[in-house]
Amino acid sequence: MKSAGRILSVASVAAALAGCISPVADTTGRYAEPIGNAPVINNETPYSNALRCIARSSRNVSTAPRIAVGNIQDYTGKAEPEGGRKVTQGAALMAISALAKAGVRQVERYDTGVTELELKYANNKLIGDQDGQAFRQIVAGTIRGSDYYLVGGITELNFNIRSGGVDGFFSDLDTDGAKANLLVNQFVMNVGLDLRLVDSRTLEVIDVVSYQKQIIGREIKAGVFDFFGGNIFDIAAGEKALEPLQLAVRSVIERAVLEMIVPVYGIDPAPCANFGKNGDPLGEIYYDAPRGQQNADSGMRTAAAPVRPYDYYSEPVFTGLRGRVN
């Protein structure tokens, strides 16, 4: 009778859980109410606020250069066992968003399919802009050109750089005694990125950035097994957590964009030095401070002050984005 009662109890719980799903759609057109109520939030990294600060500082730049983003591919070659890549294939889109946070003037070069089709239709006089009363004119020089373009790729994905943990087990000498186990593991991996900024007119590579970010994961599990009054109790609890891999890629991209934009715009990075509670973990960062006037036509520096976004000197021009521009 006791066994039958236990079976009925378990069956009642199962039926109650199954009651959350109905084979008949409700008035909203759903079989079940989705769980979760997390709102949509901004996709932030530790460098997002610094990029916005750069955007505020760059408003005084009279002739800001235009930058295009090319293809930033995944070169790691790492794939999931069930198919698909381990690393995001949207690094170029992340770079576009990072440049937008920094207030950079951008021109589209990543996906020009619609523009090319529009030009084709306009060339055949098939597009009208005034309810068919007039066809769209193709005017020379309408499309804005870029001064620089950003390309590169995700070049590293290293698993299990280091791991460690504790795995313990306790057991009473009595065969019916209590038993317990504890498992604590941690591991570290990293992702690396190489980007370059290229002069669109001369194809000179004026800046190269190579950064990496480490990612940590952990696993904690504890369990107890015991016989009590003829009943078996097996209780376990645990947690697994992994720092988001794709968010790490976004963080590396935003840090690289920040590194490149400051010298190109020729602004003082000191007011934007605060990257959060832990600060910027990078060491000293040196670059050739802007010394000349910008060319009003292109936003580039004159020949007397060539663009050299960063060089290494014995004395830092600025340190950790906290120093001053000479």
TrEMBL record:
Pfam families: CsgG. It comes from the Bacteria. Keywords: Signal. Residues 1-18 form the signal peptide. GO terms for cellular component: outer membrane-bounded periplasmic space. This is HfaB protein.
